[in-house]
Write a structure and sequence with these properties.
Layout lengths: L5 H7 L6 E2 L7 E2 L2 E5 L10 E5 L4 E2 L2 E4 L2 E2 L2 E8 L1 E5 L5 E3 L4 E4 L5 E5 L5 E7 L2 E2 L2 E4 L5 H5 L3
Protein name: Cupin domain protein
Organism: Ruminococcus bromii
Pfam family, one: Cupin_2
Length: 144
C-alpha cells in the first residue's frame, strides 16, 4: 500500500524511522533514515532503512570472495528494487529480496510513497561494498 502521508506511514513502520542517514547520504538521492535493530558485534547487523517518497540509493555492488550479498525484507510503504539489465521489481510489505554478491543493483521508495525495509549484509568472506553512479532521474521517472 502506497503511503504518501508521513504520519500515516509512521503508524505502519513498526520498526521505526530512526535518525537521518548522514553517514551514507552522499550515496542517496533524497532523504533516508537508519534505525539499527542489532549491533554489528551481534554477528548479524540488521537495519531498518526508511526512504522518503522519491528517495533511492545509488547503484551498488556487494563484493565477496565467497558468500556475501544483501537481504532486504520490506516492511512498510512501497518501493523499487532493480538489478542492472533487468526489469524493476515492485516492493511491498512482506516481499523478501535476496541479492547475490557481485550483482549491481539499487533500491528505494516509489515517487509517491514512503518506504521501509530491513537490510543486512549476508555473511561471507572478504565482503565489501562498492558504491557506483546515482540512479538518474530519467531512469527513475520511467518507473510506475
Amino acid at each position: 500500500m502506497k503511503i504518501a502521508d508521513k504520519d500515516e506511514f509512521e503508524k505502519q513502520n513498526v520498526f521505526g524511522t530512526g535518525t537521518p542517514n548522514t553517514a551514507y547520504a552522499k550515496y542517496f538521492i533524497g532523504e533516508s533514515y537508519l534505525n539499527p535493530l542489532t549491533k554489528p558485534e551481534d554477528g548479524l547487523h540488521l537495519l531498518n532503512v526508511t526512504f522518503e517518497p522519491g528517495c533511492r540509493n545509488n547503484w551498488h555492488i556487494h563484493h565477496a570472495k565467497s558468500g556475501g550479498g544483501q537481504l532486504l525484507i520490506c516492511t512498510a510503504g512501497e518501493g523499487w528494487y532493480q538489478e542492472e539489465g533487468k526489469e524493476p521489481v515492485s516492493l511491498t510489505p512482506g516481499k523478501v529480496i535476496v541479492i547475490p554478491a557481485e550483482v549491481k543493483h539499487w533500491h528505494g521508495a516509489k515517487k509517491d510513497s514512503w518506504f521501509s525495509h530491513i537490510a543486512t549484509e549476508m555473511p561471507g568472506e572478504e565482503c565489501s561494498n562498492e558504491w557506483c553512479e546515482p540512479v538518474t532521474d530519467e531512469e527513475y521517472n520511467k518507473l510506475g
